[in-house]
Amino acid sequence: MVFRSLPTQVTPGKRRRHGDFPVTPEKSSDISLDIFADDEHQKRAAALADKIRRADVLYYGQAQPEISDAEYDALMRDLRALEAQYPELATKDSPTQRVGSGAVTGFEPAPHVVPMLSLDNAFGAEELMLWDERRKRLLGLPAETQIESACELKIDGLSVSLTYVNGSLVRAATRGDGETGEDITSNVRTIRAIPTVLLKQAGASLPSRIEVRGEVFLGHREFARINSDIEETGGKTFANPRNAAAGSLRQKDPNVTASRRLDAFFYGVGECEGYSFTSQLNLLATYKSWGLPTNPNVQLCATLAEVQAFCDIWETGKQKLTYDIDGVVIKTNDFRLQLELGAVSRSPRWAIAYKYPAIQVRTTVNSIEIQVGRTGALTPVANLEPVAVAGVIVSRATLHNQDEIRRKDVRVGDTVVIQRAGEVIPEVVEVVIAERKGTEEPFEMPTTCPSCGTDVVRPEGEAVTRCPNLRCPRKVEQQIEHFVSRAAMDIEGLGEKQCELLTSEGTVKDVADLYTLTLETLLRFDRMGEKLATKILSNIDASRTRPLARLLHGLGIRHIGEHTAEVLASHFGSLTRLAATSVEELAAVHEIGKTTAESVWKWFQNEESQQLLVRLQAAGVTPTAPQDSERSTVLAGKILVFTGTLVRLRRDEAEGLVKRLGGRASGSVSKNTSWLVAGESAGSKLTKANELGVQVLTEDEFIAMVEELQHSSAQPEPAAEQE
Ligand code: IVH
User: Fold this and answer.
1) Up-side HSE of residue 202: CA atoms within 13 Å toward CB?
2) What value does the mean pLDDT take over residues 504-525?
3) Which of 156, 213, 555, 609, by CA, is between 20 and 30 Å from 386?
4) The one catalytic residue among 51, 92, 154, 236
5) Domain assignment of residue 541, given as a range
6) How many CB atoms lie within 10 A of CB 631?
7) Which span out of 22-26, 273-277, 683-687 was modeled with the highest average pLDDT?
């Protein structure tokens, strides 16, 4: 078994810096070869890079460009030319290197040393007051005291964590479950709004290590541009800027991320060494001075009345913004008070998100139609008189199911109140009974499927009515759409329209049929040119080796979402193993409940499913199994804490390694800690570990231990998925 995570050429004691040229050529004094950059060239490259970085900060971070586009392009050209001549100057941090690294197959886990928490919500003035009273009570302050608050906009994007070591970006990660995210460094490096090097102000210092946190988002204009590009190529458009930002950040090809102008604002801090902030406003000002984009719409409020006024202003003010917000975040400004208030469960007590009520408007129900989903569920949808809700024209709203229609007594012709909250699909809140004229028509669920005419069923105790026909065309179409979707097999080029075309005439009757498509068949369809057809076929071909979790998710087994599919794939490693597993074994897997276990077991027992798997296999679909080390359990149940400066591994690499080996990396030492790994200059955690009698390892001992554990646990592993 190969110990994959260790750098292959590490020299103990030599710090490996991200961005180092692999073999830095030594320029010997008596040999003057012109192929190596001398001091002059290095200085010139550094000066050019510095000018470009400052221009980026002014352009992206502060919308105040100081040099023209032509001047900027000239600086870039000069730097590129210099780097072409002396490639060792093109370090990872160079502004020329924002695009470059190749596509990745997946994202490595990125543990957060300090967990990324979420926020509690306050809906309206009263809940805000309750939160304020609580923080005063907790701090032992009299009720009449006013606590200073920093009020910020709550950006509707994706939280990201960026780690800078001595000012250089070394890791970017998503939030994930708050404990572990995904490593998206290559993609984040392409975002020009995000500095890869922090600006150092004269006379000021930078932290030796800092994890800055913020939100990556897409502005309205860029969102519209991306969707119109996708539409042109027959792809599936994004429902809102947030989804588009998420899709762009988790791109396997950094060049795609680079082509989308993602933006970012930073507002928080995780682990931090060699620097301290006094308050939220101090943090924001410092971030700005380092070139990190911060949102300008921030206000220090001395009283709760000022906080409320800030929230009220932005309730209407948000419509003029060029990006989405989903509320306001109110933070106790003083960091000493923040520390005292601390956090409970997953939210800090020093901050709260102020949310605006969902916007409600009135309109009429023109008709009610039935949609058939991929599981055969029949969902009634109201076709509405189009109406603007928070800047978006709404013409449909879900009515959920028959029980909901009865409960709300929605009839065709009714005036109804609809609402849209965040990205949620609009829904009918209530009927305006006072507007009834008596001509409205009650709605009954059909007894047969509107797509295939089969008698529908509604199992006892369930709210959902279903079409039981496995070959129901609409159901098949939805299944195919799900199978090819980004979260599943990710087959680009097959959008809604293409799936409809393929299934309507029975060309594709199930997901296995996708793999039998030929150029000739595709070209028979209207509006299918040779270019698009070839692209679709090549994308279908590439999907044959997608990771097992994606295939599992794509098969549409009930209760198997993206995460559960990951859990099953990493536990069982192959379809063969999964198919041969009992309900009890399935239910014994961590995070798999009884209902899910039964659903998976039933699916694999079903004869049609078995035939489908055989056909997929015959079509060459051989999902890639998770790597051996990803399924390793050699550190199962062990909790490791890292402290001090590591030399051979980066902190996130070491923690990722622990996680992949089944252990847990934690940020604090307790009696439950299995080992404390102490790097150079370890401080209070080392003292605490010694006090508690926790075993302490050096970095070398940790690496040796892991290697040893891996070798000693090497057992014959089941062959990778090659069915
Ligand atoms: S502070 C302890 N400030 O909102 C969490 N969060 O619902 C501290 N968000 O996960 C977060 N804008 O992704 C903070 N100005 C802002 C924010 C903000 C957006 C997001 C963030 C967080 C989520 C919580």
Assistant:
1) 0
2) 92
3) 156
4) 154
5) 473-618
6) 18
7) 273-277
Handedness of CA 480, 245, 427, 435 (dihedral sign): negative
pLDDT surpassing 70 at residue 10: no
SS (H, E, C) 169-223: EEEEEECCCCCEEEECHHHHCCCCCCCCECCCCCCCCCCCEEEEEEEEECCHHHH
Residues 446 and 478 in one domain: no
The answer to whether 179 and 167 are in contact (CB under 8 A) is no
In the listed set 432, 460, 488, which residue is the last one of a domain according to the structure? 460
Cα(118) to ligand 1 centroid in Å equals 7
Distance CA 506, CA 503 (A): 5
| 324 touches ligand 1 (CB under 6 Å) | no
- Tell me the CB-side half-sphere exposure of residue 306, using CA atoms within 13 A: 13
- Residue 585 CA to ligand 1 centre (angstroms): 39
User: Is 686 close to ligand 1, i.e. is its CB under 6 Å away?
Assistant: no
- Of all residues in the chain, what percent carry a pLDDT higher than 70? 88
The confidence score (pLDDT) of residue 26 equals: 34
> 429 with 409: CB under 8 angstroms?
no
Determine if ligand 1 sits within 6 Å of the CB of residue 215: yes
- Under 8 Å CB-to-CB from 354, ≥6 apart: which residues? 121, 122, 128, 154, 311, 327, 328, 329, 330
Question: What is the Cα–Cα distance from 588 to 572, expressed in whole angstroms?
Answer: 12
* The pLDDT of residue 35 is above 80: no
Whose CA is closest to atom 22 on ligand 1?
118
Cβ(581) – ligand 1 distance below 6 Å: no
3-state secondary structure 532-554: HHHHHHHHHHHHHHCEHHHHHHH
Give the Å distance between the CA of 105 and the centre of ligand 1: 29
Q: Name every residue whose Cβ is closer than 8 Å to that of residue 194 and which is 6 or more positions away in sequence.
A: 162, 169, 172, 188, 216, 264, 292, 293
Do 486 and 530 belong to one domain? yes
What atom of ligand 1 comes closest to residue 156's alpha carbon?
A: 19
Give the span between the Cα atoms of 578 and 100, in whole angstroms.
39
Same domain, 479 and 602: yes
CATH number for the domain that contains residue 558? 1.10.150.20
3-state secondary structure 471-520: CCHHHHHHHHHHHHCCCCCCCCCCCHHHHHHHHHCCCCCCHHHHHHCCHH
Ligand 1 centre to CA of 119 (Å) is 7
Please confirm, yes or no, whether 509 is among the known catalytic residues: no
Domain count, the chain: 4
Rounded distance between C-alpha atoms, residue 363 and residue 387, angstroms: 7
pLDDT (0 to 100) of residue 715: 38
User: Looking up tokens 């001509």, which residue turns up?
Assistant: 439
Q: Residue 99 has which token pair? A: 């695009």
CA distance 157 to 159: 7
Q: In whole numbers, what is the pLDDT of the chain averaged over residues?
A: 85
Which two three-digit tokens encode residue 141?
């302050």
Backbone angles phi, psi at 149, to 5 degrees: -125, 140
Q: 645 and 613 in one domain?
A: no
Ligand 1 atom at minimum distance from 159 CA: 13
Instruction: State in Å: Cα 363 to ligand 1 middle.
Output: 34
Q: Which residues have C-beta within 8 Å of that of residue 467, sequence separation ≥ 6?
A: 372, 376, 378, 449, 451, 452, 454, 456, 475
554 and 691 assigned to the same domain: no
Query: Ligand 1: does its nearest atom lie under 6 Å from the Cβ of 348?
Result: yes
Residue nearest to atom 6 of ligand 1 (CA): 154
Q: Ligand 1: does its nearest atom lie under 6 Å from the Cβ of 546?
A: no
Of residues 568 and 99, more confidently modeled: 568
**CA 697 to CA 703: how far, in whole Å?**
10
Residue with tokens 């003083």: 334
